[in-house]
Amino acid sequence: xxxxxxxxxxxxxxxxxxxxxxxxxxxxxxxxxxxxxxxxxxxxxxxxxxxxxxxxxxxxxxxxxxxxxxxxxxxxxxxxxxxxxxxxxxxxxxxxxxxxxxxxxxxxxxxxxxxxxxxxxxxxxxxxxxxxxxxxxxxxxxxxxxxxxxxxxxxxxxxxxxxxxxxxxxxxxx
Length: 174
What we know:
By secondary structure, this protein is mainly beta. The protein has strands at residues 6-9, 17-21, 25-30, 35-40, 45-50, 56-61, 65-70, 83-86, 93-97, 102-107, 113-118, 123-127, 132-136, 142-147, 153-158, 163-167.
C-alpha cells in the first residue's frame, strides 16, 4: 500500500468525515473508519481537502490542476458499497488549470470562490464551477494570500516586498 501523503477533517461537526490521500488515490471515511468514497487518479495527487462550505472535495494533481468534485453528485451504486470515481474519466469533476504550478490556494468561506496562487503567473480568482473570475498581479513571485473572514477583502503578499490589499465587495455594515 502507498504511503498516506495527507489528511483533512471536514468542518461539519454533525457528520464528520476524513479525507486521506496517497499519490494516486483519495479516500473519504467516516470517523468509525468506514469507507464512503474512493477517488482514483492517474496523475500524482499533491493535495486534497474539503471546501469550507462542505460542498466540494478539492484535489490538486501534478501541482497544476485543481479538481473540484461536488459531494451531492456522488452516489453509490449499491447502498452496501462505497462510491468509486475517477478524476481522469468522470464527468462530475470540474477542473481548474492555468498551465503553471500551484503554490497555494484559498477558498472563500462561502465555498463559491477560490483564489489560486501560481509559481510564475498572476494569482487567479476562480468560481467553484471552474470559471475564471479575475487576476491579481505583483512584480514578483506571490508568496500567499489571506482572505478576510467576511470574504470582503483579500491581501496578497509577494517577493517584490509588497502586500496588496484588495476590496472584493463592500460589507453590509458600510
